Every structure is written in C-alpha cells, then in structure tokens.
Amino acid sequence: MTEGKKSPGWLKHAAGALITIACVIVIARQVKLADVLDAIKHFEWPYLVLAIAFLAGGYLLRIVRWSLLLGATGAPVRFGNCVAPFLGSIALNNVLPLRLGDLVRAFVFPAAMGVPRTTATSSLVMERLIDLMTLLCCLAIGLFAIRTAQVPPMLSESALTLAVLGGLALVATFLFSGMLARMLASAGAGRPNGDKLGKVMAGVSDLLLGFEAMSRLRVLATTLVMSMLIWVGESGLFYFMMLGCGLNATPSMALLVMAIATLSTLVPSSPGYVGPFHLAAFTAISLVGGTAAQAGSFAVLCHLALWLPTTLAGATAILLRPELFRRARVVTRAELPIN
User: What is the pTM of this model?
Assistant: First the structure.
C-alpha cells in the first residue's frame, strides 16, 4: 500500500527529468558547445547590469501587487511584510520541483504574516491567472508585430484566440465569484458537522470570497496595470540580454522571446526549469533570426540572469526571517487534535 502511494510522486519526478534530458539533447544536436562558449566569451557584460535592473524593478512591482491583493481582503499586511515570503517562495520554486515554492507561500508563510491561508491562496491563484493571460497577450502581440519570424499563421491566431477567451473566462470568474461563494457557503452550512464535503465547500467558498474582494474595480484595474508593467520589466531583461549576445533586438522581439520562454516553465521539468526554458529560449531566438551559437549562449546566460539573482535574494530573505518556517510549525502543532 505504501509503495502504491509513493509511485505517482516518483513518476512525476522521473517525467520531469526525462523532459529536461530530452530538451538538452535537442539543443545539443543543433549547436556546437565550442560555438556557444565562444559566444558567451564575447557577450557584452555591461548589458547584464541593465538586464538585472529591469528584473529587480519587475520583482519590486510583483511584491507591491501581492501586498495590494492581500490588503484588498482586509488582511493586515504591508509591503515590507511581503518581501521575504515572496522572494523566499521564488527561490524555493527555483530549487524545488513542481513549483513547491508556490505551495509554501500559500500554506506555510501566511502563519508568520498573520494572513489566512485561503486569502494567500486566493491571491496566488489570481496572480497566476492574470500573469497567464498577460503572457498570452504578449505572445500574440509579439507574433503579430514580427513579420520576419517564421511562425505559422495558425500559431499567431491561436495565441490571440487563447488570450481573448482566457480574458473573458477570467472576467467571468471574478464577476460571479461572490455569488458562487455564497451558494457554496449556504450548501455547506446545511451539511452535518465534520462532513468532509462540507469542509471542502467552505474552503472553496472562502477562496472565492477572496477573489470577490480582489476583483473590485479599483483593485482589479490597478492589478492589471501593474501586471503589464511587470512583464514589460521582464521583457527588458530579455531585451538587454539579446543585445549583449550581439542580436539586433527590438522591444517586440524581446516581448515574443520572453513570452515563449516564460510559458515553457509550465512544462514539468527538473528544478530550476532546466531544459524546457533553454529549448524555448533557443527556439525563440532562432525564430527572430539569431544564429545557433547566439541562441545557445542566450539560453544559458538568460536563464542564469533570471535564476541566480532571484535565488540568492530569496535565500537571503529566508535566512533573515527564520520565523517564516518556525511560526508555521507552531501553528501546525496548535492545530493538532489533543487525544
């Protein structure tokens, strides 16, 4: 019985590792390592400073956005209280499989922040939904703006269609979240005490109430504007890294490459998104006219520019606030039933 429970977890890790290996093999078959190393050697390093500056600005806005979403529910949080949990979760995402850092931000760190777990989860889900729609829009804009890229028209049309349909679904979810929450709460209240389904319904109801609070017009409009600025900042990193690699880059090219590379992180892989990110970045640079050596060096250097600063910043934040984990352990013990 125990083995049966463990096997699905092992399968997920094995699948991620196989995907990573497959992506690396595909890249290795298209480029010579010596050419990539030579391209890295000739990278114009001053552009890295500008790239990291845009990355830092984007993450600053991400933390402001998270504090805004949490504050919209009435949670007693400020920007300073959100810095360490947010950066810490990003660092954990970078070194752990299956985006476990997101789960830690939703279920572990809230205890030290004085925020209910359902509120933290609502904010995380809302972030991810809005980011996904924004990235799909960036992909569609980039594909339509770059006529020189050898992209099938069906791909451009599909990206635009997904962005529009996803946006409509997102708006519908936010508009009706309050009504659904009250319906679930009413249905759950009529079930016997201790009923598992009733608890699930109550939890989902709380989650949807968080959506309702975060989707008020002023909050939602501010969140959408900030999300666009966040991804402009992220594309700034890609833009300057492309210039550093000797590519004749434009902002629309950077937008396209950023969208393709970032969406690739949704694919299961080894920790740090190694493999899918590199293959997606390699393919995107090839689409906009880069050579195999430029594409290979860009994939390696851009991944490091994204991964290393955020991992170091997150690890430092966790070390400076050890109560993030300690407080969670105290709360968990307090919730344990006393026999």
Answer: 0.84
**Cα Rg of the chain (Å, integer):** 22
Write the CA distances from 100 to 84, 97, 167, integer angstroms. 16, 6, 26
Query: How far apart, in whole angstroms, are the C-alpha atoms of residue 14 and residue 61?
Result: 35
- Is 25 inside any structural domain? no
Q: Is residue 16 part of a domain?
A: no
Dig out the tokens for 202 from the structure.
Answer: 């109550």
Domain count, the chain: 1
**Across residues 228-247, what is the average pLDDT?**
95
Range of the domain at 214: 32-102+110-327
CB of 70 closer than 8 Å to CB of 77: yes
pLDDT averaged over the chain? Answer: 84
Q: Is 46 buried (19+), middle (13-18) or exposed (0-12) by CB count in 10 A?
A: exposed
**pLDDT value for 154:** 58
Q: Give the contacts of 22 (CB within 8 A, at least 6 positions apart).
A: 275
Torsion angle (degrees, nearest 10) of CA 210, 214, 307, 106: -10
